[in-house]
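Q: Structure tokens for this one, please.
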Amino acid sequence: MAYTRENLKKDGFILRMLVSRDFKLKYRRSFLGVLWSILNPLLMMIIMAAIFTFMFQRTIENYAVYLILGMTLFNLMSLSTNGGVMSIINAAPLIKKIRVNKLVFPLETVLFELLNYALSLIAVALVMLFFKIIPTPNLLLLPVLLIYVLMFCAGLSLMLSALTVFFRDIIYLWGVIIIAWTYATPLFYSYNDLAPWMQSIMRFNPMYHYVDYIRQIALWGTTPSLHDNLVCLLCALVALALGLFVFRKTQNRFILYV
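A: Here is the predicted structure, written as tokens:
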């Protein structure tokens, strides 16, 4: 069936309602409310900086800024995919009652975490201001990076949400993968401190490229090369294509397993 303009409007409306609902639920009965999206990365940065500064301060300049830039971007991927894993299962009551494009549920988790990430950028800006990191025009490339990351996260979320319907072990397995991925990405240590063979392996880690991209434009004030952009785009397109393929091949059978 052709995807019409009316379908697009309907899916857009559902996405907005779902994001709004989750945003309200997250901060309902919270005294600080949305301030937690700012305080959480600040508190995590302070804790991790206190633990690792003495280990890496000699090799990593402006360590706190280095840390919070990597952590917040990685958390965007981690939280959106963790939400994506359960998105179809959690939406089972709605899927069983009405006809709806099932794509909106994993995509909503990504957009919701993008909203939280946008709020966390206030914390990033405060830390940069405190350490007197002057923004450069390269920071204008942030929307480009976010497009890459959102495509990547959307692809993973689509694939994970579909697979979890049939294999519930994915719920637990993905949690372990995220923990391993955290330590396998240079969030609190430097890529340059790794052995040459480890650096070679790191180039196959998409999150390394995305984290390095944001540090280039926000911390080091450099312009990512064409190669950097092509690698980031390729990772995003591969993840999105794979996610769409798996999701579309399996979505007609969701109703039988959710």
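A few notes: The chain has a mean pLDDT of 86. The chain has one domain: 5-256.
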